[in-house]
Design a protein that fits this description.
Elements (H helix, E strand, L loop, with lengths): L8 E2 L24 E8 L2 E9 L10 H5 L2 E3 L2 E5 L5 E4 L1 H14 L7 H14 L11 E10 L12 E10 L7 E5 L17 H16 L4 E5 L7 E4 L2 E7 L2 E4 L11 H12 L4 E3 L4 H10 L2 E8 L3 E10 L2 E4 L8 H13 L10 E3 L1
Parallel strand pairs: 1-3, 9-10, 9-16, 13-14
Antiparallel strand pairs: 2-3, 2-8, 4-7, 5-6, 5-7, 6-18, 7-8, 10-11, 11-12, 12-13, 12-15, 15-16, 16-17
This protein binds 2-OXO-4-methylpentanoic acid (COI).
Length: 356
Amino acid sequence: MVLTAADISILPRPTSKLSSVNWDQLMFGRTFTDHMFCADFEDGKWIGFRIEPYGNISIEPSLSAFHYGQSIFEGLKAFRGSDGQVRVFRPEMNAKRLNASARRMCMAEVPESLFLEGIRALLSIDSDWVHGKAGYSLYLRPFLFATETYLGIKASDSYRFMIIASPVGSYYDGRIRVRIEQHYSRASAGGTGTAKAAGNYGASLFPAMLGQKEGYRQLVWTDSATHTYIEESGTMNLFIVHNGTLITPPLDSNTILAGVTRDSILALSRRRGWETREEPISVDFLKTGLADGSIKEVFGTGTAATIASIECIGINGVDYSLPDLGLESQANQLATELSAIKMGEIPDSLGWNWNL
Ligand code: COI
């Protein structure tokens, strides 16, 4: 199936909510644009491609997504550059990852043209919501959930794909404190760790709440078998800078989300000629490097979080502080370059932007 703009029906909202938005007090994911995109998978095919006013949807209590968790999502952003152009960052990667998640969760796949044309249609009607203000973007949340009304346990026969959009500033306000988690697990071998499955996030909330009570904003998950290797953090992939070398855990354990920002940072770092590795990072290696100063930077990467600098890591009851290297840090240099590409301020020579 190849979807085109002509296949999408449009029901506009009579008046826009845009003038009521307080851009100085935006909280992540609390404000939504005027419209949403929807499509349904029924009888083995995708139908009902539509833009509607953002709002309630009608669903039955027996909806299988509620009961058995077939629910997956994506996150990506649209930016408006100083040239007025709206650019979406690497949406094809999100389309592919959504389908990798769908396969793991035994759900219908979303054709790439449906994913991309849905984004295009929503952004076309809500384009004024892509603010050009520095540090702001329009966060797009595509998601897919099972809609069969049936309590027997089986893969649903029907699904809904939706895209909603939320204007956002930064996810974290400043550098963050994290703690290495060595009791609870986010993912295990053979599990759903590489899928962007809603349940992965639900299961992380209790351990995250325990960490927050101790003053840590996020946990750093470790491998479930031994709890001796770091994997990723709540909303981000993790990087360390060890004597100038960027290192991030590899994806081959199938327990780590294949982040689009992770991939972009790896590419930019390698293009600069910086030594860049994807290799296991043990908690001991991290602890030693933090203690002897060979690790001076640890940062997270994610669509919502962008590049989040870590100021302190708690390991087994000991807090290790990291210096604030400011603009000189390797993380900051990469973040500045990445942001300039997204905003169209420097050439997009890797072909990442998708112009609306
Ligand atoms: C994203 O960065 O897009 C995510 O999905 C993280 C989210 C849970 C806030």
